[in-house]
């Protein structure tokens, strides 16, 4: 039987809603909730198949694992794997494509609506009995604006961004996008990066992280944006220079930010962004709806079965 090691099961099954039984039926399976960097080699040195979500498998680790033949990444992003080195050693790497599109698009708009309607702030106003003590039947501390007629800018235009665009168009928003290719959908106009920054009332990031776009959204980019603009990130934390974002928000250079990802995860204690009222942060949960995790498990099982048949699928190296 295949010897299978799961290095970090916790992100998938932390609420008990996901079962590993189907994976356990495929071989001799060892499950670890979490694995630290100094535990990796010992745990996978005799494995044929390794499942990882965020545990890094680089050349230094892979070179010590002579029996390893397949790495099943339990996510869409696979930058945690040294794919080129793995390929040179005959190790295939698979990922889980397009399993969380709906969930991430939904969280994108949860952040947008949270910021435009100031939901957290006004909910706290009610909970603190301030509304009950007020003379008026209606109250708001900050103005609420319609999304209809506003411009949503999308940095990147893959599957998730396209779903976000459809939702935005249903709200009556104008949608513009910046991407490497010229592929678009009806109702979305492709623009340069400078126009994206200048024209967006809400700028939402949906691109993979590369060496070229790391910290792209920093001081220079914020200076080109509207002072009323909102920045949303459900893609990768390092797309944004977080210290520059904190300064921009504190100085009123942009109006707000909604983040589901950060540069370091879990983030540092007492991060400067925590203290900024116009910054909403969710703990990298956009991908994790119950339905998305069930789809992930379906594809993961299929990937391992395909490898076992000698017909690996969703290969990224």
UniProtKB/TrEMBL annotation:
Transmembrane domains' residue ranges? none
Record flagged with keyword S-adenosyl-L-methionine: no
User: Cross-referenced SUPFAM superfamilies, in alphabetical order?
Assistant: Formate/glycerate dehydrogenase catalytic domain-like, NAD(P)-binding Rossmann-fold domains
Q: Which UniProt keywords apply?
A: NAD, Oxidoreductase, Plasmid
**Is NAD among this UniProt entry's keywords?**
yes
Q: From what superkingdom does this record's organism come?
A: Bacteria
**D-isomer specific 2-hydroxyacid dehydrogenase NAD-binding domain boundaries:** 109-286
| InterPro entries found in the cross-reference section | D-iso_2-hydroxyacid_DH_PdxB (IPR050418), D-isomer_2_OHA_DH_cat_dom (IPR006139), D-isomer_DH_CS (IPR029753), D-isomer_DH_NAD-bd (IPR006140), NAD(P)-bd_dom_sf (IPR036291)
Write out the similarity annotation.
Belongs to the D-isomer specific 2-hydroxyacid dehydrogenase family.
Name of the protein in question = Glycerate dehydrogenase
Naturally occurring in which organism (per UniProt): Persicobacter psychrovividus
């Amino acid at each position: 039987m295949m010897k299978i090691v799961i290095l970090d099961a916790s992100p998938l099954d932390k609420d008990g809603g996901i079962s590993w039984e189907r994976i356990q039926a495929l071989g001799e399976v060892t499950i670890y909730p979490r694995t630290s960097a100094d535990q990796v080699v010992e745990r996978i040195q005799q494995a044929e198949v390794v499942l990882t979500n965020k545990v890094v498998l680089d050349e230094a680790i892979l070179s010590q694992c002579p029996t390893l033949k397949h790495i099943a990444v339990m996510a869409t992003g696979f930058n945690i794997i040294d794919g080129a080195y793995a390929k040179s050693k005959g190790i295939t790497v698979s990922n889980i494509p397009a399993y969380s599109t709906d969930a991430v698009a939904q969280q994108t708009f949860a952040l947008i609506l949270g910021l435009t309607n100031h939901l957290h702030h006004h909910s706290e106003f009610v909970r603190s009995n301030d509304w009950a003590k007020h003379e008026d039947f209606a109250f708001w501390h900050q103005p609420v604006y319609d999304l209809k007629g506003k411009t949503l800018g999308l940095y990147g235009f893959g599957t998730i961004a396209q779903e976000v665009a459809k939702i935005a168009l249903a709200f009556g928003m104008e949608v513009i996008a910046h991407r490497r290719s010229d592929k678009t959908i009806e109702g979305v106009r492709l623009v340069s990066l400078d126009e994206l920054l200048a024209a967006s009332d809400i700028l939402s990031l949906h691109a993979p992280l590369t060496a070229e776009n790391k910290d792209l959204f920093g001081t220079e980019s914020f200076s080109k944006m509207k002072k009323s603009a909102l920045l949303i990130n459900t893609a990768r934390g390092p797309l944004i220079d977080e210290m520059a974002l904190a300064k921009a928000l504190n100085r009123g250079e942009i109006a707000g930010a909604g983040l589901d990802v950060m540069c370091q995860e879990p983030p540092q204690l007492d991060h400067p962004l925590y203290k900024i009222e116009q910054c909403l942060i969710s703990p990298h949960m956009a991908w994790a709806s119950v339905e998305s995790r069930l789809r992930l498990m379906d594809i993961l099982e299929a990937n391992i079965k395909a490898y076992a048949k000698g017909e690996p699928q969703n290969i990224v190296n």
